[in-house]
Amino acid sequence: MSTGTDQSIGSGKAGDSVRSTAMLRYRTEPPVAWATLDRPEKLNAMARGFWPELRDAVARAEADPEVRVLIFNGAGRSFSVGGDIESFGELGDAGDRRAYMREAVGAFRAVEGLTKPTIAAVHGHCAGGGCELTMVCDIVVADETLRIGTPEATVGLVPGPGLARGSAHVNLHWIKYMVMTGELLDAEQARLAGLVNLVVPAGEHEARAEQLARQIAERAPLALEAAKQALNRQYDGWWEQAMDTVSFLQGTADFGEGIAAFEERRQPTFKGR
Prior knowledge:
Layout: E1 17-19, E2 24-29, E3 32-37, H1 50-63, E4 69-74, H2 85-88, H3 94-113, E5 118-122, E6 125-127, H4 129-135, E7 139-143, E8 147-149, H5 160-169, H6 172-181, E9 185-186, H7 187-193, E10 198-200, H8 205-217, H9 221-233, H10 239-249, H11 253-264
Parallel strand pairs: 3-4, 4-5, 5-7, 6-8, 7-10
Antiparallel strand pairs: 1-2, 2-3, 8-9
Helix pairs in contact: 1-3, 3-10, 4-5, 5-10
């Protein structure tokens, strides 16, 4: 499956609608919509253009009365390895870095703010921004191949949205472990930590997510919206602090060293400045 092709997910029934974008494919099979991260040759790494696409997909689901649940999934071998690190070096001055963070955080908050339930159907690597996308979804279904985590410290950063939402899902020890070690958890560890609701055999995550979505779609939509808003509201205060933290770190020498080491395929030497 190549980026930008018009292909469908699931059964491909008559009447399905398919929309192709640079990375994110959007498809409806009412009452379910699918938003597929479709850059498999890069393990669905999220370039800067992904964020407006993500907001657009959420807006489409919000505006469509036939859609009751939105599912996110990934094409190819992984859900997403997170931000496209190679493109981080292209960020400009402090204003541009801040603008980038607002774009990313705004997209994540749009997902979280969707009045309709969201499900992340994940497999393979789900790191950095990929992990954070699951954190702003309502339910996470993983297959047993999942490897999930927040490895941003390996390039001199912290997971901004992960800081804002991670502790809403896992306890303080778990989120500190994830942030400080950068290690990826396997599917069962993620379930025990609270990052994942259900673990299924390899390759069955999308079918289980769709089954769950159709079950949820039978529930009263206004009741689900009210419950979602009430539960999310208690964690709203972290977003601005998370943006400030990441924007600051993007201007440090350690961040520059982390990006250079990644591009040169070597271990970084951080100096704490």
